[in-house]
Amino acid sequence: MRAAPDPSTRERIRDAAIASFAERGFDGVGLRDIAQRAGVSAALIVHHFGSKEGLREACDAHVVESLVTDKSRLAGGGASAMMREAMTDRERYLPLLDYMARMLTSDTSAADELFDALAGATRDLLEQQAEAGMLRPQSDMDVTVTAVTIYGLATVLLRRQLARSLGEDGLTETLLRRLTVPLLEFYTHGLYTDDRLLTAAQDALSRPIGPPSGKGENDPHQDPDPPRAV
Fold first, then answer.
1. What is the pLDDT of residue 87?
2. What b/e sequence results for 70-100 when a residue is b if at least 16 CB atoms lie within 10 Å of its CB, and e otherwise?
3. Could you tell me which residues belong to the region Disordered (predicted)?
4. Is the pLDDT of residue 216 over 80?
5. Are 173 and 117 within 8 A, CB to CB?
6. For labelling alongside 146, which of 64, 76, 114, 213 has CA 20 to 30 A away?
7. To which H or E segment does residue 40 belong?
8. Which class for 57: exposed (0-12), middle (13-18), buried (19 or more C-beta within 10 A)?
9. Above 80 in pLDDT, residue 199?
10. How many other C-beta atoms lie within 10 A of the C-beta of residue 198?
């Protein structure tokens, strides 16, 4: 088996930054700290990325590419191979998850930018899947994109509780294998056996909200079930 090639200097700096930001946050790390970890000079980091902010943007792009954009293969024939890779190559993916967890929970514009990038990549993925006939029509794609993004991030941000509640010590290969089919069942088949709750919600949302107009049931502003006075 041929050994993997050594990462380029740029990749080595980026990976060192991802690990450092994951451990101490963006504001808790300086360029000299990252340079020492990567075995380069701070000046070389500036040469490659322009600034610490430019380095963070490169880290964001790599994380989004690795964790979301790569999933475009799901719309083609590489789904099975990709799932096996995600379940077994924890050494590659866990630092990226740690980075996301740290950066997204900070009260900064950097967190907003990372979330927007993840949501944008999720939208691209869902649109590809829709074109491939894999996705049902959605009533509000903006809501769907945001919900799918947040649902996916819950596994990252709450992974300690996820693992604990299912009797595992972290995101182990065993846990990832156990999660795969139930989560895809949820996405593929949904949760409910019929559309009663959906129909009830659509009916409720189609009715006006407010006190009765006093003009009868057929008045468009009449609330058929007005709130009672306390």
1. 60
2. bbebbbeeeeeeebeebbeeeeebebbbbbb
3. 203-230
4. no
5. no
6. 76
7. none
8. middle
9. yes
10. 12
**Nearby residues of 175 by Cβ (< 8 Å), 6 or more positions away:** 162, 163, 166, 168
Question: Tell me, what CATH number does 118's domain have?
Answer: 1.10.357.10
Both structure tokens of 192: 């409910």
pLDDT single digits (tens) 76-129: 444 555 556 666 667 778 888 899 999 998 888 889 999 999 899 889 989 988
**Is residue 114 a part of any domain in this protein?**
yes
**pTM > 0.85: yes or no:** no
Residue 104, domain extent: 9-157
Residue with tokens 């029509």: 137
User: How many domains does the chain contain in total?
Assistant: 1
Tokens 């490659």 correspond to: 48
Does any domain span residue 39?
yes
pLDDT of residue 5: 44
Residue 202 covered by a domain = no
